[in-house]
Every structure is written in C-alpha cells, then in structure tokens.
Design goal:
alpha+beta; serine-type D-Ala-D-Ala carboxypeptidase activity; nine-stranded antiparallel sheet; signal; EC 3.4.16.4; globular; Beta-lactamase; about 15% strand; two-stranded antiparallel ribbon; single chain
Length: about 400
Amino acid sequence: MGVRARGVALWAGIGALAVTATVTIATAQGESAGPPAPSGFEEAVGQTVKDGFPGAVAYARRGDDEWRTAAGVADKATGEMARPEQRFRIASNTKAFVSTVLLQLEGEGRLSLDDSVEKWLPGVVQGNGNDGKAVTIRQLLNHTSGIYDPTTDASFFAPYLEGGDRDHVITPRAVIARSVRHEPEFGPGKGWSYSNTNYLLAGLVIEAVTHRSAPAEIDRRILAPLGLKDTSFPVTDPEVHGSHLHGYDLKGRDMTRFSPSYDWTAGAMISTVDDLARFERALFGGKLLRPDQRRELKTPVEFPDAPAYGLGVQRMEVPCATGEGKKADPLTAWETDGAGPGYTSVSLTTADGERQLVLAATVYDLAAELEGEAPVPRSKGLPKARTAALCD
C-alpha cells in the first residue's frame, strides 16, 4: 500500500519477541551451495524479529552470488516458520512496475510523459482548483502534481478499521473523486508531496493508451517476460493466496485479509523477495527500458526537503564504514519500498547494479500511522542488513 513511501525512513530509527530460528539458503552461480552470506546479514534479519516483528524474510546478492534468509514465524496462530519464498503484500513497490509500463509506452512513441492528464483522462481531474490540463504524466510519477491524497485521512479507512469490513471495496475512480473534491496541495510542478492518487491516475492512463487493464498490461510487459510466477495483482480479492507471510498490527492482530481495491496501481501487488529482486535487477540493468527512459526513471525531483525521488524509485546514499570502523564514502543505491496493513518492505540496488537487498517484515499498523504514531516496532535490523548486504 502506499500510505507513505517511507520504507527506509520507517526502519532507520526504528521493542520485543524472542528470536526464533533463522534459516539461510545460499546459491552461487546456480549451484546448490556457495560462499557464506555477508557478515551480519543473517543476524540483522534476526534482529528485526528480536525487536518485535513476528517474521522477516530477505534476499541479498553480490554479483552472481545470492543468499536468502528468514527469521521468526509466518503465522502466529499456527507457529509456521517464515520461509524466504513466501509471498507478502509489496504495497508501494507496485509503483515502480507502473512507472516502468508508462516509460515503455513512451519509448514506443505511444505517449509522452509531458502529455497532460486531461489528454488521456478528459474531465477526470477538475474542480476545486484541480486542473488536469496543467498536470503531466511525469508529475504524477514523481509526485509533483499537487493532487491531494485522501488515504492520509483516518475517515477513509473507517469501513476497514472501525467497521471491521476487510472486504470493503473502494474503487480507484472513487478515490480519485475524493481527491479532486479537495483543493490541491500546491500548483502542478511547484512542490513535492507523496500522493497515492497520482499512481491511480497513472494506472488509468495505462488503460487509456493500451485499451487493456493495467494489471494485464503489467503482467504482459513485466511479469510474464521475467518469469515472476509468484507475483500477482489482485484488484478486489482480500486474500493472499499460496504460501505466504501473515501481516500484523502493533497489537498482534492479523491484518493479512484486507481489500486491495483502493490501492490498485498505487500499491495492490503481492510478490516475494526473489521476484522483487529479479524485477529490479532487470529494471536497473536495462532489460526493461531503453536508455532514454532509464535516464528519466532515475532523474530525481529537486525541491528543498524532498527526497531524491525519480519516477517510482528513489535515490539514496547508504552510509558505510571501512574495516577500521571509520566512515567510508556513502554508497549510492536505488530504492523502492512499501508499507501497508501488516507488511513493511524495502528493495535496494546499488548504482552499479552489482549488489541488492530485498527485505520484508510483518508489521505495519495503519491505525497508528493515521494517528501520527510510529506504525512499526523500533529496530536497527534494516540498517544492519543494508550495511551487511551492500557495503564491503
């Protein structure tokens, strides 16, 4: 889900359950066993469970060597152990799939990122100071449109959290209608503000251009060619099917069943650490986009206090240290993340494409987030895993 795009920020500062067994599977160049996992990688994933996440799974890669690890339980009710191959809701990591499809369409000459929203979705963004003629597709993808995000309001989620109807359906167009009943946060291109509505509109643009559903187009262009068989895009189905991790709130309540309808192209997808890693390796490695479009993907906005956000991806500097414990030059990486009911995840790829980390853990408390409170346990697990996987 895209309540916020805060995966790394959420974890960076981020009390406790006992650590259960950690299982690590290593492969090297297709062999059944390989070199040992990077120092501290397994321990860092275990740390997240020690600090209060029921379960965590992770994937790390250095060159052709890959490692997978899991800690804690997949299901608190049954005690089933977490396993690296299990599915989870990837939330706002979905946005990178959506931006990829639109960039492919631009590369094919079927649209321009500087096209107005009005050109493809006439009459959809208008009223109360909203003007689709002034908003471009690029501004949707880099969150500079100024369009309001109603999923930041507690009342939006009342049917789910207060009424207890986890199957409740709110369509993407209904979310957009709520958005434009509100004045924009700022004029198009005049600031940066993360808004899930931007990516719902982006999904509708995909459909207007291709005359196919956005999930079908993502499957045709990305999932099928890359063989991402454990990745799916539910529209209204509230279940996570197949072997999966259960997600929880801070009180330990199971949040796994939750309608993805309102999140759609802003964050409805389900995947695994392996599939996410394969997608991002292809994305940043040039298999999915032409050079011009890859440059656009990685061109960040430039506003005071805004993150280095490109088109569905974010650039960040990873702090590393030398062997003597001294600080080394920061390592540049590209990041996507996701945070939604029950699940928090992050995916990082170094700028040279040689190293990756994908990590998911099974707490995200939406109600706490909406009340302005920390929605996940405080843990140093992610920073430690990030350093272990990406730094020397």
